[in-house]
Amino acid sequence: MGPEYRFYTIGDLYDLTQTLAGEYLAGFTYPWEALKGIGEMIRALGEKLDPREYWEVSSQVWVHVSAKVAPTAFLGENCIIGKDTEVRHGAFVRGNALVGDNCVVGNSVELKNVILMNHVQVPHYNYVGDSILGTYAHMGAGSITSNVKSDKTPVMIHAGVEKMETGLKKTGAFLGDHVEVGCNSVLNPGTVIGRQARVYPLSSVRGTVPEKSIYKHQGEVVLQR
Fold first, then answer.
1. Which fold has domain 10-213?
2. pLDDT one-digit tens code per residue, 58-93
3. Do residues 221 and 205 touch, judged by C-beta distance below 8 A?
4. How far is Cα 176 from Cα 185, in angstroms, rounded to an integer?
5. What whole-number distance in Å separates Cα of residue 52 and Cα of residue 54?
6. Most Cβ neighbours (<10 Å): which of 9, 84, 103, 139?
């Protein structure tokens, strides 16, 4: 039996106890529906954070007292950096970024309009925009999310032969819990990767990758043994 293709819901992809955005995300069915309100959600969360645990280091930027942020990293407005998270030299957090506990945001990494749940690693030369990454998701060096189609039309979500409209021109990728993305891969707009799936290095991924599968290349996706 081969992989099963379907539209993954938020509940299919994520353990919502592993993010401050759990209550917010629970109000939606599909993850792309949550993208528009990420900035507003972060502002609301930030105002309720315990100031003994989270320092507002600049306007609408909250950093946990245990986090390590390199002096050369940039943190834009509407940003929360979680407990024991490391933001390394040259990281560019443009804004609207909720980064969970025990995460790594590495050198030359750019984040924009994202939710990174606990234990996510984007450690080397990654771009992650308009995306949600589940707990323990890991993006290999140089892997990126592409969030805009070349013709600038709204992004469609594909699950096998089925399609669903997002109504959004900017939609990145949605990685379930424990997803591994190989080095120098491109996750094309609207990519959805189910829990515990793996993507080979140098892949160009489109559509949905079923959970617990291995994406070798377009047209060859196999279940893990």
1. UDP N-Acetylglucosamine Acyltransferase; domain 1 (2.160.10)
2. 999 999 999 999 999 999 999 999 999 999 999 999
3. no
4. 17
5. 6
6. 139
Host H or E run for residue 165: strand 162-165
The encoded tokens of residue 43 equal: 């502002």
* Domain spans in the chain, listed from the N-terminal domain onward: 10-213
The SS3 assignment for 7 reads coil
Give the strand pairing for 204-205 and 186-187.
parallel
Q: How many CB atoms lie within 10 A of CB 123?
A: 18
Cα separation values, 131 from 38, 51, 159, 182, 219, Å: 10, 28, 18, 17, 24
Reported pTM: 0.96
In the chain, which ranges are continuous DSSP H helix? 10-13, 22-25, 38-48
* Helix ranges restricted to H, 113-216: none
